[in-house]
Specification:
The chain has helices spanning about 1-25, 40-75, 100-135. It is mostly helical. The protein has 2 domains: about 1-80; about 100-140. The N and C termini lie far apart (about 55 Å).
């Protein structure tokens, strides 16, 4: 949950940074010229840089802690008495949850759907970037 909230905040910061960077540019040349820029364009440019840097630092920290959690899980750090139980409020340590075949099947289906959705999103993004960077040439 924390990972998704932080990711959404990073996305918002980066989008706002892009909007502010566009607002700070000259409309004709689409560049930022500090000599001819107004004070509001300077403010937008400064905020754009600040938000972009904060977003990248937050994204790096978010990635770091999720990788750390994966490493700790891989080395069985969480394989402890209370960590194996999801019942923290009770006095029963080490409660084992036994999954049935139906549960495992639904877990596998959910995992496969997640991988398929992520793959489709990646391919659509790569296709969009290819179209954006190399537009089709029309011969008239």
């Amino acid at each position: 949950m924390l990972y998704s909230i932080a990711s959404t905040v990073v996305w918002g910061l980066m989008n706002l940074s892009s909007v502010l960077a566009y607002a700070s540019t000259d409309r004709v040349t689409l560049t930022f010229n500090p000599k001819t820029a107004t004070s509001s364009q300077h403010l937008c440019a400064t905020l754009s840089i600040l938000l972009r840097r904060i977003g990248k630092v937050l994204a790096t920290l978010n990635t770091g802690w999720i990788v750390l959690i994966c490493i700790l899980q891989f080395i069985n750090f969480f394989n402890r008495c209370l960590c194996n139980s999801s019942v923290w409020s009770h006095a029963v340590p080490y409660m084992v949850v036994e999954l049935k075949n139906e549960d495992l099947q639904s877990i596998k289906e959910g995992w496969a759907a997640g991988v398929a959705t992520a793959s489709v999103a990646c391919f659509l993004f790569i296709g969009f970037i290819q179209l954006y960077l190399e537009p089709a040439i029309h011969s008239d």
